[in-house]
Amino acid sequence: MPRPSMNYSNRRKPVGESQRRGLGVAVIIVAIGIVITVAVFGVSNWLGPFPFGISRRDTTLLTLWNEGKYDDVLSQAEVVLDEKPLDAQALTFGGVAHFYVGIDLATTAEQQEHLSRSIILLRKAEHVARAPLQGERRYVLAKAYYHTGAYNFDLSARYMEQSIADGYVGDDSHSYLGLAAEGMGDYTSSAQWYEEGLLLRDSAALRIKAADARIALGEFEAAEEHLRKALDGNSDEYLDLVLKIDLAAVLIMRDQLGRAEAMLVDIVENHPDSADAIYYLGVVYENTDRSIEARSMWRRAREIDPDHLKALESLANWEE
Which whole-number Å values give the CA distances from 278 to 15, 42, 285, in the listed order? Predict the structure, then answer.
């Protein structure tokens, strides 16, 4: 049964602030469940005895996993580990199941409890001879470390790189590497990882992340290219709006004010309630000596979104 990966949020404040709130930037829709399900069928066919006295006939964990009963996998793994703390199968399947059960929970405390247990079991499996699914284990371990917070981004990157070196590449492997690098402030590596991911699987969401990284590096032309390519392949109306606003913002950064204004006027005509588009149109007016029009746009953006931080800041700067 395929298990979805978690979407992750942008660590840098997005260009289109209020519009991005509703956008689940799904940089990664992972196919790990399919791959692991295929891979685990090979576990019971190893040559020679299983380590630590496990019999080939002891396939309870494998059966539960293939049936998608992940809560039962957790329970059975813990039962096995009470008797055999270094059981290779229990450490592996229990650790992976803890991640997928935990990452779906809405309560942060419960989620972190499962993620911590996942990390403990998978780290132990690293030291068990012939523990199965090394590449997949490290892939999940990397994701678990990422979701425990910024202090573990370096470990997330380390294990994801090891997973790739082991020959396992998930749909979101490069995206997690990009996120970890971005979280550590290494935007050069972040951009490179995102762009390597695009070579394997192009998507508008990943193009947005790559553009964000290039913006952070001040490489606005490269950012524009990513956004235009994302627009070319996009059919979603809402995402189309977000991409156009982001592209207009990049054109402002490139001092392409005429092009930005034409794009933003068109957006506002078709989406009069877009606070972000209205805000950036105000920025164009400010930079073309139309301060009255600029303040009018920012006030209008605030009427639509009273918490629009950039509009608030712009108005405050004028009032000082």
Answer: 13, 57, 11
67, 97 in Cβ contact below 8 A? Answer: no
Query: CA–CA separation, 315 vs 300, rounded Å?
Result: 11
Instruction: Decide if 284 contacts 307 (C-beta within 8 A).
Output: no
Neighbouring CB atoms inside 10 A of 180's CB total 28
Is residue 48 within 8 A of residue 16, CB to CB? The reply is no
Give pTM, 2 decimals.
0.77
Q: CA nearest 159: which of 134, 195, 183, 127? A: 134
Report CA 174 to chain centroid distance, whole Å.
10
What 8-state DSSP symbol labels residue 14?
P
Q: Where exactly are the structural domains of the chain?
A: 255-320
The tokens for 93 are 């399947």
Residues of 140-151 as b/e, b for ≥16 C-beta within 10 angstroms?
A: bbbbbbbbbeee
186 conformational bin, left if phi > 0, alpha if psi -120 to 50, beta if neither: beta
Q: What is the pLDDT along the chain (320 residues), one digit of tens a residue?
A: 333 333 333 333 334 544 444 443 344 333 334 333 333 333 333 222 333 333 343 567 778 877 778 888 888 899 999 999 999 989 999 999 999 999 888 888 999 999 999 999 999 999 998 888 899 999 999 999 999 999 999 999 999 999 999 999 999 999 999 999 999 999 999 999 999 999 999 999 999 999 999 999 999 999 999 999 999 978 899 999 999 999 999 999 999 999 999 999 999 999 999 999 999 999 999 999 999 999 999 999 999 999 999 999 999 887 65
* Residues contacting 10, CB < 8 A, separation 6+: 20, 25, 209, 212
**Of the candidates 278, 208, 198, 265, the residue with the CA atom closest to the CA atom of residue 236:** 208
| CA gap 36, 31 in Å, rounded | 9
Spatial CB neighbours of 42, under 8 Å, sequence gap ≥ 6: none
- 255-320 maps to which CATH number? 1.25.40.10
